[in-house]
């Protein structure tokens, strides 16, 4: 599966947050069921470091990344720097006590994964968070730098994706933790079609696939979230950012100009700027213009997610501006 890029400073990916929350909920249910049957639902320290191959990548990395940030150590037997770095990563994985999972991948035995991640040399270290691939560093790194990188990764995973990691029990038997198996749903085919369309850059196809789901289930959360971001990406396609921002600066009361600039702000990861711009525009407008701005702001709330603190604060600000 081709990994996608994720920026720590950028806007969240379209369905990643929702998918992570759903997968996390399923994992918690599985652990709760294990507890009812007399198990702990915890992993042993030995299970915090795993060897992964191409056949198990989706199960062991992509699916697990909905519970915990998965750090990938790409290594090779002939690589001397790898022999220095890998033991440090393994020790830190245990020390972080379930806040990360370390996956070791031998590039000589898994050439396809090496190519998919665009790796030019080893050692190379990536992370996968809620299915999103993030390059961390390549080559040698001292322990302090690694710790700083892992601390930032853990913070982003928790703040933006709600991932709190795994429960570790030193007395747990390896292999005893339940694996949450995602249940097939009635809309899986349409949602998979939307994801494939997005990966191929076919925004129109993704939008139609999400609308097909919503035509039958208007409140489907993943389809609502996916449609909101796919439509946002479609709106900014072909925009000249410099021209849009200049027009917005020159015409603060122009609803169309402010809405376009807010879309660009959000896609660029400037969430507070996008919300603030539209709230100020609400304050300056009335009638149909004000309603158009309000509707777009609500759409952007859907993209970021209703539980995000920035959305909660902006909703309060919007209420004050309206009333």
Task: Kindly describe this structure.
- By secondary structure, the protein is an alpha/beta fold.
- The protein folds into 2 domains: 146 residues, 3-Layer(aba) Sandwich (Glutaredoxin); 135 residues, Alpha Horseshoe (Serine Threonine Protein Phosphatase 5, Tetratricopeptide repeat).
- Helices cover 56% and strands 9% of the residues.
- Helix 8 packs across helix 10 and helix 11 packs parallel to helix 13.
- The N and C termini lie far apart (49 Å).
- The N terminus is likely disordered.
Topology:
Blueprint: H1 16-36, E1 49-51, H2 57-63, E2 70-75, H3 80-95, E3 101-106, H4 111-116, E4 124-129, E5 132-138, H5 143-161, H6 188-199, H7 203-216, H8 221-236, H9 241-250, H10 255-267, H11 271-284, H12 287-304, H13 309-322
Parallel strand pairs: 1-3, 2-3
Antiparallel strand pairs: 2-4, 4-5
Helix pairs in contact: 6-7, 7-8, 8-10, 8-12, 9-10, 10-11, 10-12, 11-12, 11-13
Estimated helix fraction: 55-70%
The structural class is: alpha/beta
By CATH, the superfamily of the largest domain comes out as Glutaredoxin
The total strand number stands at 5
Count of alpha/pi helices:
13
What is the fold named in CATH at topology level of the largest domain?
Glutaredoxin
- Give, in order, the helices and strands: HEHEHEHEEHHHHHHHHH
Strand order of the largest sheet: 1-3-2-4-5
Mean pLDDT: 82
Bulk shape = elongated
Are there runs of 5+ residues with pLDDT below 50, and where?
1-18, 177-184
Proportion of beta-strand residues = 5-15%
**What is the highest CATH level, the class of the largest domain?**
Alpha Beta
N- to C-terminal distance: 49 Å
User: What summary fits the major beta sheet?
Assistant: 5 strands, mixed
Q: Indicate the radius of gyration in whole angstroms.
A: 22 Å
Label the CATH architecture of the largest domain: 3-Layer(aba) Sandwich
